[in-house]
Design brief:
Layout (H helix, E strand, L loop, with lengths): L1 H17 L5 E6 L4 H16 L3 E6 L6 H12 L6 E3 L4 H7 L7 H6 L2 H4 L2 H6 L1 E2 L2 E2 L1 E3 L3 E2 L2 E4 L1 H7 L7 H13 L3 E3 L5 H25 L4 H4 L2 H14 L11 H9 L3 E5 L4 H7 L9 E4 L7 E4 L2 E4 L5 H15 L1 H11 L15 H15 L3 E3 L9 H16 L5 H15 L1
Parallel strand pairs: 1-2, 1-3, 9-10, 12-14
Antiparallel strand pairs: 3-13, 4-5, 6-13, 7-12, 8-10, 8-11
Helix pairs in contact: 2-14, 2-16, 8-9, 10-12, 10-18, 12-19, 18-19
The protein binds beta-D-galactopyranose (GAL).
The site of beta-D-galactopyranose has 12 residues, from loops.
């Protein structure tokens, strides 16, 4: 495997040193937190080392909602950037618009079909042609814990929802915030989907968030999930509404809070703070989710642009992103695992190794599911409808779980 990597590295160096022109690349992304910014800076550095010019198009806002709004207006006005962070079924929506560049030449020359797991390769294609390049695989159903807070409260890291509530009561009594949360729709949805996975299991999750089956969306299992999700709110603090996710992570880092439900981009924050997993913080699958895995694959699409320079820049960007060197360095900072299965995890920590093992095991055991909250399971209109129903219920004092389940069905149907 190492020899393979070296060959590819040499091939990349050869491609790059032969590249005729340096190009300017304007890249839209929403990676502005400490860990995220460090990660994307590695891409900038690698592009600049090849002589290309990086024009940063960062639009702040976790989960990327604001970035998508800005991107749409740029594309509509006929002035798309070189590349943009687009993922999941949204790639198909942009493909339908006829604005994406075809990356098949670079994909074929660099063997992407063989290097990428099937679930990743499929997500990168529109009409069987590569239009996107993957940077990573994030796992969403994680819980990040501060072991010192748990110790001071005299409780263990919970593995079931019953254990979670018992521990949360003691943590609260000991004067800590049990759950660091940011009350923004995408963060509410992130916690909610994790609860659904734990309560209903992977098959139920798929029925609800992939098949959008009304019988699952309005079922006793969904009602139970909604109830648990709402109960969690009692264990968050008053500052939660509107809080950015990385500030919630900071509460776990500085010992104000015991835990956070968040994807492993949170690990990027712990890493940027110089903390060590297993010692200063703990990563554990969220209660009852075990080795099941909600995946969130970040990727970049390239837009059709006129002129040779744009094409050159896109080729450099795509080749660089898929290089083993980039996949390693970027993901060490970002908290995710490389999208390419052949990149060695030797330098990665135990959380990444667990993520990788569970990614492979869950694919085999059919418990690998796409993250609804991160745009992997549905088109953006349906995702938005679920966000609305979930957030409204979470914030209201007069909506029952039964009514919220009904409203999930009607909102999803209206958005389809
Ligand atoms: C996700 C994205 C991650 C992470 C997170 C918070 O949607 O896939 O890479 O950055 O948002 O911004």
């Amino acid at each position: 495997m190492n020899a393979y990597r070296i060959t590819l590295g040499a091939a990349l160096a050869a491609t790059l040193s032969c590249s005729a022109t340096a190009a300017e690349v304007e890249v839209l992304h929403w990676w502005t937190s400490g860990g995220e910014a460090k990660s994307v800076a590695e891409l900038k550095k690698m592009m600049e080392a090849q002589g290309d010019t990086w024009k940063d198009f960062a639009v702040a806002g976790g989960g990327g909602e604001s970035a998508m709004t800005v991107l749409k207006s740029r594309v509509v006005s006929g002035n798309p950037p070189t590349a943009a962070q687009i993922k999941g079924p949204s790639i198909q929506e942009w493909g339908d618009e006829g604005v994406l560049a075809n990356l098949d030449t670079v994909a074929e020359a660099n063997n992407w079909d063989e290097l990428l797991p099937e679930v990743v390769a499929e997500a990168m294609k529109y009409d069987e042609q590569y239009v996107a390049v993957p940077v990573n695989v994030h796992r969403v159903n994680w819980m990040w814990a501060n072991p010192s807070v748990f110790e001071q409260a005299g409780v263990e890291i919970p593995t079931t929802w019953d254990e979670f509530f018992a521990a949360a009561d003691k943590i609260k009594a000991a004067g800590f915030v049990p759950v660091a949360h940011g009350g923004q729709p995408w963060q509410d949805a992130t916690t909610f989907e994790t609860v659904v996975l734990g309560v209903g299991g992977a098959d139920f999750y798929r029925q609800a968030f992939v098949d959008l089956d009304p019988a699952a969306l309005n079922s006793p299992t969904m009602v139970q999930s909604l109830e648990i999700f709402k109960r969690i709110k009692d264990y968050t603090d008053e500052g939660a509404p509107g809080r950015d996710w990385n500030l919630a992570t900071a509460m776990v880092i500085n010992g104000k809070a015991a835990m956070q439900f968040m994807g492993d981009w949170a690990k990027g924050e712990f890493a940027a703070a110089g903390l060590t997993p297993g010692k200063d913080y703990v990563c554990a699958p969220a209660p009852a989710t075990g080795e099941a895995f909600t995946f969130n694959i970040d990727s970049f699409v390239m837009f059709q642009l006129s002129g040779d320079e744009a094409g050159e820049g896109q080729q450099h960007l795509a080749t660089t992103i898929m290089s083993p060197e980039f996949q390693e360095l970027f993901n060490l900072n970002k908290g995710s695992i490389p999208a390419r299965l052949d990149v060695s995890l030797e330098k990665f920590d135990d959380c990444a190794k667990t993520s990788n093992e569970d990614f492979v095991a869950s694919a085999e055991g059919a418990t690998l599911v796409p993250s609804m909250a991160h745009g992997m399971s549905t088109f953006s209109s349906v995702q938005g409808a679920i966000y609305d129903a979930v957030t409204q219920y979470y914030n209201a004092s007069d909506i029952s779980a039964e009514d919220a389940a009904k409203s999930l069905v009607s909102s999803v149907q209206a958005a389809q």
